[in-house]
Design brief:
Chain A: This is Sulfite dehydrogenase. The complex is a heterodimer. Chain A has helices at 3-7, 12-21, 42-45, 49-52, 139-142, 172-176, 189-196, 221-226, 390-397, and strands spanning 76-77, 90-91, 124-129, 135-138, 148-155, 179-188, 204-209, 216-220, 229-234, 237-238, 248-250, 263-269, 284-285, 291-293, 301-306, 317-326, 332-338, 346-347, 349-351, 360-368, 373-381, 410-413, 419-424. By secondary structure, chain A is α+β, with helices and mostly antiparallel strands. Chain A folds into two domains: 6-26 and 297-422, Immunoglobulin-like (Sandwich); 109-269, Oxidoreductase, molybdopterin-binding domain (Sulfite Oxidase, Chain A, domain 2, Alpha-Beta Complex), CATH 3.90.420.10. In chain A, the strands form six sheets. A five-stranded mixed sheet of chain A has the order 4-3-12-7-8. In chain A, strands 5, 6, 9, 10 and 11 form a five-stranded antiparallel sheet that branches. The radius of gyration of chain A is 24 Å and the shape is globular. Chain B is mostly helical. Chain B has a two-stranded antiparallel ribbon. The longest helix of chain B has 21 residues, at 3-23. The radius of gyration of chain B is 28 Å and the shape is extended. Classes of the chains: A alpha+beta, B mainly alpha. At the A-B interface, strand 1, strand 3, strand 4, helix 7 and helix 8 of A face strand 1, helix 2, helix 5, strand 4 and strand 5 of B.
């Protein structure tokens, strides 16, 4: 993918506006080619194996898998984070993705008692508590209910949580990879609650998982009746086991821990339960020693995925800067990008669907003259919320909150094209 | 692009747009304050039996709702804890290796490195009971009896200096009267008022700050995977 053949295809107008972003006086240099362009390319002049011999037949991979050349596109964990792999996390390789949908096998994993493997014929969903009639559903029952398709991001509240005290991890996979974006197919929770009949004093719901952690979280009933789904499919096929097969909660825009996997029970009550996951964890300790609770909504956030530490710039001249933006409060209205550490900003080009509570893709097509860059992105959502700098966040939230770090990320791009995670002052 | 291809692309774009506004951006009605009239029933599912509800509905609330009848003493809890919990959580709840710490840390919440435990941080005792009975011991969940869970909670109160007497018995009657020290320190999400300044109609675009200087680098911490070891993180 060298610039040479591509350059002519580039839209001239966009080319110019992007060039101005990179700063006045930057020459539009052609990318340096790795091979000698005066000699014919043997990949063209010589017949290659794949051009002569037959490839695999149709049934070689009944369930397809990525090209062997993509073997590095995988989830990765940070082994020192937790004591055991069954209560741990791995991270989505954001730098390898494009568009807005996260392939199911790359969606980050977070479990508290390992991945439950549940035969859907043996799965039950119970609704009890403040209802007219407590009910038990089978998966077959759930699949007979009216269903809907929606694309939503899921972000763990601890995404970027290691970065509160300063730059820690080199790679957007590790700093921002606890997010994914999936099309869910599922039944609105309201349909199920209506079937059981909510009592008038119903105020809170408790969602509970059927795994070995029995994950439980309280959810306000208004949210449950608005846009929550009980999903059985992701990206067009059954949920993956690690994403809660056969049934998970989808709580649009709200922190990932609420999206209970292997969902087996919903209890209706009149106050929150104060479970371990909403007291010991997922509360935000502030500098004064007090803690915020019920911080459900994920604030607007964005990150540049390329260039980034795992995605260096390889060529001078034409390049595509790219990233994701998202907000738990609505849609992404605008994304600004800075190449000089937040001194000057230019609005990025949003491409692809702009959906409610979904990842949104942005690009800046730019020319790089080989100078050092301090790359940042800043999301602005449909409520007018502007993604703050890390320092602005620390002023109100301190450095011990673990959760809800949506500060602006900086990648320092060196003259050799490598970049690293830095903190600016 | 040929002119017909461009037309086709435009047509697709228009189709997408109308499709999107229909399916995606239409405001769905807020049903939170749902009208009183009951929704038509689908007739799916069956009534949950009392035995089934009892088997799964083990949750406990701060006001004591959900607590089973039962009891256990600090002493009994100590024995159980050493046998079934200490291998991970340490003899005194101090945490073996990187397994969670369950005791200590009082007075550290404003410190540089807060130690968040049942005694220093958790607001409600009910959470300890609820959680232990649903998820512990790790790898053998739901193997404790109700009385064993009472005894373990009593012992954790003792490890955290909230109960001093090792003959103390915790039961369903006295449970809700026990308050944890940090209970009052939690408040509801107030970001939309306390962080109002993040809603900014006119974010700066030009000359927004001094020349930035690099003040920290991930590379100097060297904890990215492929690197060797790293610090303990909660």
């Amino acid at each position: 993918m060298r610039d040479k053949s591509r350059a002519d295809l580039v839209n001239r107008r966009r080319f110019l506006s992007a060039a101005s972003l990179a700063g006045a006086g930057i020459a539009m240099t052609r990318g340096a080619s790795a091979t000698d362009t005066t000699k014919p390319d043997p990949l063209i002049t010589e017949v290659q194996d794949w051009q002569r011999y037959l490839g695999d037949g149709v049934d070689k991979r009944p369930y397809g898998s990525p090209s062997k050349f993509e073997k590095n596109v995988i989830r990765r964990d940070v082994s020192w984070l937790t004591a055991s792999a069954e209560s741990s996390v791995n991270f989505t390789p954001l730098h390898e993705l494009d568009g807005i949908i996260t392939p199911s096998g790359l969606c980050f994993e977070r479990h508290h008692g390992g991945v439950a493997e549940i035969d859907p014929a043996k799965h039950r969903l119970m609704i009890n508590g403040l209802v007219e009639k407590p009910l038990v559903f089978t998966m077959d029952d759930i699949k007979r209910m009216p269903r809907t398709n929606r694309i939503y991001f899921l972000e763990c509240a601890a995404n970027s949580g290691m970065e509160w005290r300063g730059a820690q991890l080199n790679g957007c996979q590790f700093t921002h990879g606890m997010v994914h974006n999936v099309m869910y197919t599922g039944v609105p929770l309201k349909v199920v609650l209506d079937e059981a009949g909510l009592r008038p004093n119903a105020k809170w719901l408790m969602l509970e998982g059927g795994d070995a952690s029995g994950m439980n979280r309280s959810l306000p009933v208004e949210k449950g009746l608005s846009d929550v789904l009980l999903a059985f499919a992701m990206n067009g096929e059954a949920l993956r086991p690690e994403q809660g097969y056969p049934l998970r909660a989808v709580i649009p825009g709200w922190e990932g821990n609420l999206w209970v996997k292997w969902l087996r029970r919903i209890e209706v009550g009149d106050q929150p339960w104060q479970t371990r996951e909403e007291t010991s964890k997922y509360t935000d300790l502030l500098a004064d020693g007090r803690s915020r609770k019920h911080t459900f909504i994920m604030d607007a956030k964005s990150v540049v995925t390329s260039p980034s530490p795992q995605a260096p710039l390889k060529y001078k001249g034409r390049n595509v800067l790219s990233g994701f933006a998202w907000s738990g409060r609505g849609t992404i209205q605008r994304v600004d990008v800075s190449l000089d550490g937040g001194r000057n900003w230019q609005t990025a080009r949003i491409d692809g669907p702009v959906l409610d509570k979904s990842l949104t893709r942005f690009y800046v097509d730019f020319d790089w003259n080989g100078e050092e860059l301090m790359v940042q992105s800043r999301a602005i959502d449909s409520t007018g919320y502007v993604q703050p700098t890390k320092d602005e966040l620390r002023k109100v939230r301190g450095v011990n909150s673990i959760y809800h770090n949506n500060g602006i990320q900086t990648w320092l791009v060196h003259r050799n094209g490598d970049s690293e995670n830095v903190e600016l002052g | 692009m040929s002119s017909w291809a461009r037309l086709l692309a435009a047509g697709i774009a228009v189709g997408l747009m109308t499709g999107l506004s229909g399916a995606w951006s239409a405001e769905r009605p807020r049903v939170g304050a749902a009208p009183a009239e009951p929704a038509a029933k689908m007739g799916l599912g069956r009534e949950a039996l009392p035995e089934e509800i009892a088997a799964w509905d083990t949750d406990v609330r701060p006001d004591g709702r959900g607590l089973p009848v039962g009891r256990g003493t600090v002493k009994q809890g100590d024995e159980l804890f050493q046998e079934r919990c200490a291998s991970c959580h340490g003899e005194f709840g101090q945490g073996a290796g990187r397994w969670p710490v369950l005791a200590g840390g009082q007075g550290t919440l404003r410190a540089d490195r807060p130690d968040k435990t049942i005694g220093s941080f958790w607001p409600d005792l009910s959470t300890v009971y609820d959680y232990i009975r649903r998820a512990m011991p790790y790898g053998n969940a739901r193997s404790l009896t109700d009385d064993e869970a009472y005894a373990l909670v009593a012992f954790l109160l003792n490890l955290n200096d909230i109960v001093k007497d090792e003959n103390f018995e915790l039961n369903d009657k006295n449970f809700a009267s026990i308050k944890l020290p940090n209970a009052e320190a939690f408040f509801d999400d107030d970001r939309e008022t306390s962080e109002k300044k993040f809603w900014n109609k006119d974010p700066c675009m030009r000359n927004c700050r001094e020349l930035p200087k690099v003040t920290g680098k991930a590379i100097s911490v060297d904890v990215t995977p492929d690197g060797k070891s790293g610090p303990k993180v909660d």
